[in-house]
Amino acid sequence: MAYPKIMLVDDTRLILELEKSFLKLSHVDVVTAGNGAEALELIRKDPPDLIFMDMHMPVMDGIACCTELKADPFLCGIPVVMLTTAGKEEDRERAKEAGCDNFLTKPVDRRLFLDLARKYTNAVDRREQRLPCRLPALFLVGKTPAAGLVLDIGDGGVFVSTRERLLLHQRLRLALYLEGERPVLLELKGWAAWLNEEGKRVHSSLPAGFGMEFLELGEEESAALKSYLASLRPEEPSAS
User: Fold this and answer.
1) Measuring CA to CA, which residue among 84, 221, 72 is closest to residue 155?
2) d(CA 193, CA 189)
3) I need a surface site. Which of 103, 108, 122, 233 has the fewest CB within 10 A?
4) Beta bridge partners of 54
């Protein structure tokens, strides 16, 4: 199965590595280019599904590259997100004139980057790193209770294994006990950020279920989650 392809274009290697790290949990292929000319050559050989492109680069900048790309009838449908300098409205105006589809300001924020990528392909996973667990849970679908099993957890959400059918972006309430010397009952609000349906798996390594992103997380819930996550992480070996 071929994964969607995302191209990252920037002349700074550190920025490329940072953006690649944002996509490490996603089922996508990532290709990189160091300037607009290199990007165009790669795009014409094997068009990607989405491009994140820096505006200011040597050889060929993002404006010139995007202008050529959008003038090509075979390539103009590829979404281009232009990385611009924060606070420079003239950069956005130039990017609009070049035909870019969206903007992202530097320094690049992980959540904003993934939110924009997710807008163009649902293969992008916006999750923070999750830790494996096995916690029985109950969740409400409307006013109807249903059972599930939490298989991974992070400070921003969980994956719940269940055969209950949900709608994408459906609002949910979830209750589970965090294990420990004193088990803590958490009641959490969230939404179904993505679905792993039978016959239509976003993540083939996971069973049927859904990824829940937390909403309105209070201080007590955040503290309890932080403490529980710390208990799951392996201790780092001490220096000898």
Assistant:
1) 221
2) 12
3) 233
4) 83
